User: Which sequence fits this backbone?
């Protein structure tokens, strides 16, 4: 479903990706773990074509995302949803307008009560009630903003959802509910997900496969059990911070 | 490379990217879906929202010009020409240039800040990820609105400026109203007004292109947004003056 082949990306002298390859099978959840500034967001932005690789390619379904431009790229993105690190809600729009945005832009003749119905339905999935509909993002807590962003990513029923640090900065209960949502999206809707995270606990809970990004490459890659058994020193250290607590 | 050369290269590269961005905006502008409601909202912000500041600037400019001209022309006993000269200066130069500078300060800075903030908080990326082009959704309406509203605001400036001159000329300087209006009619031809409005249209495009680009290309958090806004205002102001000079030169050259 998602396939990245030998991705290289530099910003000037900053060599962020140095040969990353991975494959996400349809209907599964793939987690990429890595420290801050390791290039996780950069990797995710290549999958949705917001960044172009210096070398290598990205395919999603039948589309070679890394080779598309302009309108073709815009069309290819219709099957995606993405949850951004800082939620990235439009701050000039209410919650209703934010979540309705992908629906209204996809089909401009869609009826308003129909839009509202679907927005309320998706907000319910992320545990938000109708009372937030008319609020602006600035009036919401960080956790609520993240959940609204999730609702916005899911509202147009995408086949692929990309999550950029969905649980960072959330309290343990909300973290757990976000994890549940990612798993539910897979089980109930058959969505293919790619999750970028530095939250080891969440990662091992939701992942079918996972990888650890370090120094521009994947230091370990495989099923959770395989990654946990990795002998790579960085991977060992990275995972031990959490597994030590168990 | 020497640091100076490198800086020049960076400026030229940025300029090239801005021009490319302008062509992209044009391509998106002529392609559906069209979003008239967004254009109207920007027209209200850039146009209606600037009427007050442009009007005030216009009245005071007209009043000052009338007093100055009266002082100069009276020495040749030619104060009857005050109305005509004020109208001529306003129509061809002062109204379009001062209107554009006011719009830059008020709307250009706001546009650069808004788009810059959306860039650094990933709202532009989010929009793109939802298969909507931020150029089409955000940039095009602002350019269309500026290109149409700056000429309209210039007309407001022309009108109120002349009104200010009339009040000063007739009631303060004591110029007889007959010659004041008569010479205006004789001196100012519609071509002068059109010349000013054509400039205003160009200025509107220049302001919108520079301000949206500085927002769209912003990077580096709140500080980057602030720098982008400052650059938008400074660059737009200079670009207005340079464009004004170029158009005047070409127009006067055409007259022989
Ligand atoms: N658009 C960009 N221009 C220049 N450098 C960038 C850009 N995006 C990311 N970087 C750099 O790439 C590196 C990885 O960033 P990022 O992927 O955001 O890290 P993280 O793993 O925390 O998500 C950082 O050093 C960052 O400064
Ligand atoms: Mg990141």
Assistant:
């Amino acid at each position: 479903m998602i396939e990245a082949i030998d991705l290289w990306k530099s910003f000037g002298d900053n060599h962020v990706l140095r040969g990353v390859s991975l494959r996400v099978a349809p209907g599964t959840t793939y987690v990429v773990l890595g420290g801050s500034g390791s290039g996780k967001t950069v990797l995710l932005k290549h999958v949705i074509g917001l960044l172009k690789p210096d070398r290598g390619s990205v395919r999603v379904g039948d589309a070679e995302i890394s080779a598309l431009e302009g309108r073709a790229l815009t069309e290819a993105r219709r099957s995606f949803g993405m949850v951004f690190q800082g939620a990235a809600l439009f701050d000039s729009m209410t919650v209703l307008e934010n979540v309705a945005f992908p629906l209204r832009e996809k089909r401009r003749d869609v009826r308003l009560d129909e839009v509202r119905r679907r927005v309320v339905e998706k907000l319910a999935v992320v545990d938000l009630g109708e009372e937030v509909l008319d609020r602006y993002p600035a009036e919401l807590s960080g956790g609520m903003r993240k959940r609204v962003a999730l609702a916005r990513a899911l509202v147009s029923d995408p086949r692929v959802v990309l999550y950029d640090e969905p649980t960072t900065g959330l309290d343990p209960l909300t973290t757990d509910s976000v994890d549940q949502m990612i798993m539910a999206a897979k089980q109930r809707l058959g969505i293919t997900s790619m999750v970028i995270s530095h939250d080891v606990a969440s990662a091992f809970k939701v992942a079918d496969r996972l990888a650890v990004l370090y120094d521009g490459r994947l230091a370990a890659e495989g099923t959770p059990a395989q990654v946990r058994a990795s002998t790579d020193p960085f991977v060992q250290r990275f995972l031990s911070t959490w597994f030590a607590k168990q | 490379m020497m640091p100076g050369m490198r800086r020049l290269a960076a400026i030229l590269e940025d300029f090239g990217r801005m021009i490319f961005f302008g062509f992209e905006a044009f391509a998106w502008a002529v392609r559906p879906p069209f979003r008239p409601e967004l254009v109207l909202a920007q027209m209200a912000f850039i146009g209606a929202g600037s009427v007050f500041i442009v009007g005030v600037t216009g009245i005071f400019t007209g009043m000052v010009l009338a007093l100055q001209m009266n002082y100069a022309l009276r020495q040749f006993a030619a104060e009857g020409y005050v109305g005509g000269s004020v109208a001529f200066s306003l129509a061809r130069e002062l109204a379009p240039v001062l209107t554009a500078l006011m719009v830059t300060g008020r709307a250009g800075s706001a546009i650069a800040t808004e788009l810059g903030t959306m860039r650094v908080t990933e709202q532009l990326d989010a929009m793109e990820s939802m298969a909507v082009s931020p150029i089409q959704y955000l940039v095009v309406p602002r350019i269309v609105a500026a290109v149409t509203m700056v000429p309209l605001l210039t007309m407001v400036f022309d009108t109120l400026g002349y009104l200010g001159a009339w009040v000063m000329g007739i009631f303060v300087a004591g110029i007889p109203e007959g010659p004041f209006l008569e010479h205006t009619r004789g001196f100012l031809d519609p071509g002068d007004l059109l010349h000013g409005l054509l400039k205003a249209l160009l200025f509107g495009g220049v302001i919108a292109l520079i301000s949206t680009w500085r927002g769209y290309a912003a990077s580096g958090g709140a500080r980057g947004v602030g720098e982008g806004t400052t650059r938008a205002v400074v660059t737009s102001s200079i670009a207005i003056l340079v464009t004004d000079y170029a158009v005047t030169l070409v127009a006067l050259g055409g007259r022989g």
Summary: The pocket of adenosine-5'-diphosphate (ligand 1) is lined by residues A 11, 14, 16, 34, 36-42 (CB under 6 Å). The radius of gyration of chain A is 18 Å. The interface with chain B takes residues 45, 48, 50, 74-75, 77-78, 80-82, 84-86, 88-92, 101-102, 105-106, 108, 152, 156, 162 of chain A (CB under 8 Å).
